[in-house]
Every structure is written in C-alpha cells, then in structure tokens.
Amino acid sequence: MSxxxxxxxxxxxxxxxxxxxxxxxxxxxxxxxxxxxxMSMYDWNGANVKSYVGxxxxxxxxxxxxxxxxxxxxxxxxFAAVIIQLIVPLIAAVLVFHVTNRRLQQFFKVWFVVPLVxxxxxxxxxxxxxxxxxxxxxxxxLKVVGLESWTHAWLxxxxxxxxxxxxxxxxxxxxxxxxxxxxxxxxxxxxxxxVAKLDGMNAWQxxxxxxxxxxxxxxxxxxxxxxxxxxxxxxxxxxxxNGGPGTSTMTPALYLYIQGFSYSRLGYxxxxxxxxxxxxxxxxxxxxxxxxxxxxxx
Length: 298
Prior knowledge:
- Its main location: membrane.
- By secondary structure, the chain is mainly α.
- It has helices spanning 3-10, 12-39, 56-63, 65-97, 102-113, 120-130, 137-144, 158-167, 176-186, 190-198, 203-211, 216-232, 235-240, 252-261, 266-290; strands at residues 42-44, 50-52.
- It has 15 helices and two strands.
- A two-stranded antiparallel ribbon has the order 1-2.
C-alpha cells in the first residue's frame, strides 16, 4: 500500500469535510469558468442565438480600440494601486505597531479596520458626491479657500477623471492590507527588537534590516491580491464614470460587463473574461516565481 493511500485511509474523515468545499467551488467557480471558456468560441446572445465562431471573438479583441484603451487604463490603475498598497498601509502598520500605549494602539487598530465593514458602494457614492460638478464638496472647498480657478468637473473631464478614481479611498490605509502588515509585524520575535535597541539602531535602520525583510510574505500576498482586485474590479468605475469621458477610464472588466449585459454579446464577453483570467494567472505566476517569501534577515 502506497504512503499516499495509507494517509488517505488514516485521515478519511478530514478529507470528507472537504467535499462540500470542493462542491461549492466546482459549482460557482470551476464549472462557470470552463463554460465561459467554451462559450468564448461562440457568437451567443445569452438566449436563442448561438453559433460557433472559433477564435473570432479573440481576433476581434485584438482589433477592438475600446478594449485596447481599457488595457492601458487598467495598467495605470494597477500600477498606482500597487505603489499605494505596498507603501502606505505598511507605513501605517509600522507606526501603529510601535505605539507604546496599548489603549491608543487598540484605538488605531479599530479605527483602521472600520472601513472593512462599510459597503464599497457607499464609499464610491460618497466620493462621487465629493467629486461632483460645480457644487461638489471638493469644488466648494476650493472656492472657500480662494482657489476657484482650480475647480473642475473632476469626473467629467478626461484629464482629471483618471486621477480622481486613483484618489478614491484616500488616505488608502484602512482595510485588509493594514491588518496583514500588522499581523506580520506582530509575528516578529521581540528579541530581535531588543537586539536592535542594544545595537543602537534608529527607526529607519530597524525598519530596513528587520521589519521590511520579515514582512516579505505579506508584501507578496498583498501584491497578488492588489493585481487580482485591480484587473477584475469595475464597480468603482461603473459608479463614478461608467468608463467615461469617452474611454478615458474604461477597464476590461467594465467593458466585459457592458458587452455582456448591455449589448447581449455573452460570447464576446466570455472571451474578455478568459483573456483577463490569462493575464491574472501570468502575473500571479511571475509574482510567485520572482518574489521571495520571508526567509531571513539580510
């Protein structure tokens, strides 16, 4: 009897509990994906029109100017999000971690976790109100401080719409990324900090030689999550600009939504979804291949 079979017989009860998990994943993740892969080969309106077209949908994607514009936009959104999420929550987590007053530290932890319980649609609608036209909060504030010449239709002008969407959720601290960094810092042995103190390390040296190397695993995870979230997200753009003005804020996921549910081109939308899956898979592989986990202090 092989070792694998023996292990299976010994732990069969534990594996039995995994069956419902895999059943749910298969029903709502794996089966729909393979179905989308199959339907990307069809001209399908989701109802009564369904004809096999092979790779025609993918060939059309290569020539689709709107889709190509959306790729450029999502690359910009993703680059900005990666820079923000790898730096800002980490700085906040380090600062909170080194707060000596336990009550104050706990207050900051709760304060930065609160955004997790607020529905994202509420956040986007709030920022839509802030960026609204002539009487939006931001424009009214600029008028009050004497900077009326700086006012814009922030979400209605191509030159400001992209930046405005990037600015949503400022100061970009609250949420799961902050907690991941904080958990990584709390897992570092206190003895290392004692040694650093005895060696006379200042805050920057301690961060560079101890804290940053030992949260590599969190950095790697956050990078993957940020890439996936940015490439797949569309609700923020849908609520704020609906991809406009023109295609200046269009993203592939939003374009998929529009093609599938506004124009009933479910086959073409499936082709977009398969392309996004391939992009996410490639970026995740690159991240896993070239970014090291936490292993040692340099």
